[in-house]
Write a structure and sequence with these properties.
Helices cover 57% and strands 11% of the residues. The protein is of the alpha/beta class. The protein has two domains: 312 residues, ABC transporter type 1, transmembrane domain (ABC transporter transmembrane region fold, Up-down Bundle); 227 residues, Rossmann fold, CATH 3.40.50.300. A six-stranded mixed β-sheet has the order 8-9-10-5-11-12, with helices on both faces. It has a four-stranded antiparallel β-sheet with strand order 4-1-6-7, with helices on one face. β2 and β3 form a beta hairpin.
Length: 647
């Protein structure tokens, strides 16, 4: 930044305002074009009425007051009556115009917020994992709110000012072309200066909104329940306060600069407009000295009145020009989000599937997937080499999943086990299409999930995750999220099935008790059982359990496992669990390592195999289940010898 208000360091990402951008902004008014036309007509009428009184002043001076033989009172009565009636009528029409303008403006803002929110709801999970929540909130609130005054007032203000200027200039020319040239001669300079100031304001506005987004992100992260617990646990309150203070100070400085840029320019305009009437009197004196040219006292008074009426809308138009350029920076940020493509969408042939007719077979066929951009494809196919040597001599994984094949029959309980980072959660994300595979296919009942409508897919699949999310609302509202049409009887039945009904009834207001931010008024086990009850209400055909009990104590884990048993009956269930005790009864266990299925079978079969699963199992149960270790293997308490895992 330089030390004056007319300059600000240009933003490298700031694009110039184009006609396409302006047309896009104008297009958001299209649904309300009838009301816009009504506003325009009212502006034309009120602006036209504004020219009448200055002309009546000329009549009053030249034809009614200063005439030979004394004032002509009859004419004066008519002139005065008209001078009173015109502003009254204009004021009433102005109220109507303001009402219509605000209706149009607020409806446009409503549409803009709705469009942005709906667009974000359809964005892929990848977007939310790579974007701060505070940044998203800032686009919805700060950016949309920042353009509100421009949307609400600018269109009508510009048209009103334009009509006033044109009608006033015409009236001034009728009175004196010499005085009109004096009044308009310096305007090109002011228009040029306005463009320069507007550019600077727009640059500052873009940087200010980013700073506002950063501040929103800090607030959202550190003042959430999780953030507060973290800062208190580590004694970092002073650090977080200082971090907020620094960003807040930066934002305040930017907002001061945004307000002050060009203020000296507008002060200059105001001073010039204030002293111009004095120059009019001077020029009028020269004109009268040279013969008058038909100039009368009424002409001079009427002209100075029109001049004051001219300069106000011109100044307003210059100000609006600056504000519009500032607002364009905010529109560009809004359009940037609206222009982001949806990666996960319904294809042309996507179809709805009746949940009642779904058998629940799940199959992954040669699935390759990675979260970032896939390597360059050759002949339309991604390279099959799963890894490459890193600098340390170890192989570096290029893919999160590499050629995964698995099949879960209808009604089976299938378990995914393996070390952290093996790709278990990724598999569960591909089934409901949180992400799409790069190669291969994910199928339900033999149908590629990409050929099933997303809304229909959401009805088929239910999930219970390790981190249960509850809204800051009542227990009832949280449960009804799974099925908004459920009756009280169904609600209670679901809660009983999840072994949480009795605990709910102990709460101060029962099912109407507010659970608090993210459900922090409930224990971990209680939140998990509420999540299970929510899925029971949804009644999905395919159930995914992602580490549903890993973070719970033994008592809560037992209760949640008991709640899961009736939920899994009659459904296809895919469960991820680090605690292998929770999936011993699984029909089939898929063991994953480094993005591949390395083993599969029942618990007994995998123990006999002596591979990775047996190794993981023995590690977890070495405390009491293992009887002894021998050179040949491990002796379990049952007396069976399990071979040592292969190196």
């Amino acid at each position: 930044m330089r030390g004056h208000f007319f300059h600000f360091e240009a933003d490298a990402d700031l694009r110039p305002v184009t006609r396409a951008s302006l047309r896009r902004v104008v297009s958001i008014f299209r649904p309300y074009r009838r009301r816009v036309v009504g506003v325009g007509l009212l502006i034309l009428v009120t602006s036209g009425l504004g020219v009448i009184n200055p002309l009546l002043i000329k009549v009053a001076f030249d034809d009614a007051l200063f005439v030979p033989g004394g004032p002509r009172m009859a004419l004066l009565y008519v002139v005065v009556a008209l001078m009173v009636a015109v502003p009254v009528i204009s004021g009433l029409l102005g109220i109507w115009q303001t009402y219509l303008s605000n209706i149009v403006g607020q409806r446009v803002m409503q549409d803009l917020r709705n469009s942005l929110y709906a667009h974000l709801q359809r964005m892929q999970l990848r977007f939310f994992t790579s974007t701060r929540t505070g940044e998203i909130q800032s686009r919805l609130s700060n950016d949309v709110g920042g353009v509100q005054s421009v949307v609400t007032d600018t269109a009508s203000g510009v048209l009103s000012s334009l009509v006033i200027v044109i009608s006033t200039v015409v009236a001034m020319l009728l009175l004196s072309w010499q005085l009109t040239l004096l009044s308009l001669g310096t305007l090109p300079f002011f228009f040029w200066l306005t463009q320069r100031v507007g550019r600077a304001r727009r640059e500052v506005a873009a940087v200010t909104q980013r700073s506002m987004a950063d501040l929103s992100a800090i607030t959202e992260e550190t003042l959430s329940v999780s953030g507060i617990l973290l800062s208190k646990a580590f004694g970092r309150q002073r650090h977080e306060t200082e971090r907020f203070r620094r960003e807040n100070e930066r934002l305040a400085g930017l907002q001061i600069r945004q307000q002050m840029i060009g203020r000296s320019f507008f002060a200059t305009i105001q001073i010039f407009f204030s002293i111009t009437p004095a120059l009019v009197y001077l020029v009028a004196g020269f004109v009268l000295q040279g013969g008058g040219g038909g100039l009368t006292a009424g002409d001079i008074v009427a002209f100075t009145t029109l001049q004051s009426r001219l300069f106000f809308p011109i100044g307003q138009m210059l100000q609006v020009s600056v504000e519009v350029q500032s607002a364009m920076a905010l529109f560009e940020r809004i359009f940037e989000y609206l222009d982001m493509p949806h990666e996960i969408t319904d294809g042309p042939g996507a179809r709805r599937v009746d949940p009642a007719g779904v058998r629940g077979e799940v199959r992954l066929r040669d699935v390759w997937f990675r979260y970032d951009r896939p390597p360059e494809e050759v002949d339309g196919r991604a390279p099959v080499s799963p890894a490459e040597d890193g600098d340390d001599g170890r192989q570096r994984r290029l893919w999160t999943l590499e050629g995964v094949d698995l099949e879960v029959a209808p009604g089976q309980l299938a378990a995914l086990v393996g070390p952290s980072g093996a790709g278990k959660t990724t598999v569960t994300y591909l089934i409901p299409r949180f992400y799409d595979v790069q190669r291969g296919s994910v199928e339900i009942d033999g149908i590629d999930v990409r050929d099933i409508a997303l809304e229909s897919l959401g009805e088929i699949i239910g999930m219970v995750t390790q981190e249960t999310y509850l809204f800051h609302s009542s227990v009832r509202e949280n449960l009804l999220y799974g099925n908004p049409d459920a009756t009280d009887e169904q609600l209670e039945a679901a809660a009983r099935a999840a072994f949480i009904h009795d605990r709910i009834m102990e709460l101060p207001e029962g099912y109407d008790t507010v659970v608090g931010e993210r459900g922090y008024k409930m224990s971990g086990g209680e939140k998990q059982r509420l999540a299970i009850a929510r899925v029971v209400l949804k009644d999905p055909r395919i159930l995914i359990l992602d580490e549903a009990t890993s973070s719970l104590d033994s008592t809560s884990e037992r209760l949640v496992q008991e709640a899961l048993q009736p939920l899994m009956e009659g459904r296809t269930t895919i469960a991820i669990a680090h605690r292998l005790s929770t999936i011993l009864a699984a029909d089939v266990i898929f063991v994953m390592d480094r993005g591949r299925i390395v083993e599969q079978g029942s618990h007994e079969e995998l123990l006999e195999h002596g591979g990775l699963y047996a190794h993981l199992y023995l590690q977890q149960f070495k405390g009491g289940t293992i009887e002894a270790e021998t050179a040949d293997g491990v002796v379990l308490s049952s007396g069976r010898v399990v071979p040592r895992p292969n190196a």
